[in-house]
Amino acid sequence: MNVTYKPLSRRKVIGLGASAAVAATAGGLVGYHILHRPRPRNVIFIIADALRPDRLGCYGRPRQNGIDISPNIDRLAQEGVLFDKCLAQSSWTLPSAASYMTSREPFVEGELYNEGFVTGRCRTIAEILRERGWATMAIIENPYLYIPGKSGERELVSVRGFESFRHGSPRLAPNPLYDEGIGQKEVFASFTNAQEATNSAIELLSRRVGRTRPFFMYLHYMDTHEPYNPPEAYKELASRAPAVGGMPDYMLYQAIRTEAKRRGDELLRAEDMPAFERASALYDAAISFLDEWVGTLVNFLKASGLWENTLIVFSSDHGEEFNEHGWIGHSKTLYEESISVPLIAAGRGVARGARVHSPVSMLDIAPTILDSCGIDEPGEMQGRALDLAGVETEPPLATISTLVRPDVPVPLYAKKYAVTHRLGRKLIRTDFLGERAGEPTKIELFDLTADHQEQSDVSSTERDDVEALASILNRHKEQAASTAAAPFTLDEEARRVLESLGYLH
């Protein structure tokens, strides 16, 4: 379905009725079954942390020095369905994981870091499948999804419902810049990489060959997350940007962040460019390394006979900024580069070579998996089951993304909300809190059909659209307020891990 943008007058949007607006953004699940379409017995759900879709060939990325950096992921898209536009519900891992595991908004009105928790009545994909007899396995290499935290009786959604749960340990390395006031004495040099994670997955999957019990595997890679430090053999792909003298590759992001903090802002400057360009090149090298092991996993599935009965869903938890709005990384904004993610489905029951242009969100992942497996969709889910035959379906009226931006131990200073309308207008609202509570709310409006990079704020001239999208957001907040979770307190180990990840500074 190709849609053409028309201005969203207050009458047209709000005239749909408050109930219609809320139902379209957070309503019950809608299934799109294709009768007699073969169903998978098994599901492998892959998240490549912080992976931007526009860095993949299947999303239009040109060859780099004559080299395809993502041939295996591109081939997966060719063998299945690629969704052109998929939005995450936040721009950092914990709330996004809550969304894709439960198909619930990580919407909060409470205190620090409760984004990653959902109310007790919300179940994860793993819990639902396990109840129905599936074997459930997780290999998660993001330490934030298994760090200890004083969460009372709540659990992070990433670990709920799994019979088998594995994770590696991030590799620490000395910080040669510590004496200059940059970082801690030891920092993360890399996470457990795609080779080790894939080998762990293959070990578990090998035990499933020939068994009748279906399985669900959640595999969370970290190679494309900062510090972008792939194995040395892959760094040749980063040769377009030379190494920064006296600075290990794993220190680039920490150096940029520390210098910006000293300057009192979070904007890249000319002096940051050598480190920034090197980091961006290493990000591509990390994609290439990840891609090889995604290919290894697919080859194993095909050689073992598991492929014929397995659905693969490949996505990311959020995007990554590379100076589109003056910064590098994630968890600070809700611009497109931070919340756009790839979404590819392939394998059993999926059309080959299909491309869906209408927008979707990560809320749709859990209901799509359940629907594909023939499981009745739980009523608490807010997403919709996507048609893996590649048929265009009517998208929700709008997608809501949220971000609570903390500076620990300073209290929360802002909450951000993005409303992306299906016809291409996007509202970003920033509410300031704490010591900044007196600052006026910041409103931005962009026409994504003409300004995908979000460089031209038209909020001052398009007031009808601002009011219309603000109305959708306000209705959505009212509905979500009753499901806000209790506060989550971090212990010292959790703080240390998050500081090394770059979330606390």
Descriptive overview:
The chain is an alpha/beta fold and 505 residues long. The chain contains 12 helices and 19 strands. The strands form 5 sheets. The chain has an 8-stranded mixed beta sheet, with helices on both faces. A hairpin with a 2-residue loop joins strand 16 and strand 17. The model is unreliable at 1-35, 108-119, 148-154, 406-410 and 484-490 (pLDDT under 50).
Total beta-strand segments = 19
Percent of residues in helices comes to 25-40%
Biggest β-sheet, characterized? 8 strands, mixed
Architecture in CATH?
Answer: 3-Layer(aba) Sandwich
CATH level-1 class:
Alpha Beta
Named CATH topology: Alkaline Phosphatase, subunit A
- Rg for CA atoms: 22 Å
Walk me through the topology.
Layout: H1 10-14, H2 18-26, E1 42-48, H3 71-78, E2 80-83, E3 86-87, H4 93-102, H5 125-131, E4 135-140, E5 164-166, E6 171-174, E7 186-190, H6 194-206, E8 215-221, H7 252-263, H8 273-304, E9 310-315, E10 321-322, E11 328-329, H9 336-339, E12 340-341, E13 343-347, E14 354-356, E15 360-361, H10 365-372, E16 398-407, E17 410-421, E18 425-432, E19 442-447, H11 463-481, H12 492-501
Parallel strand pairs: 1-8, 1-9, 2-14, 3-15, 4-5, 4-8
Antiparallel strand pairs: 2-13, 3-12, 6-7, 9-13, 10-11, 16-17, 17-18, 18-19
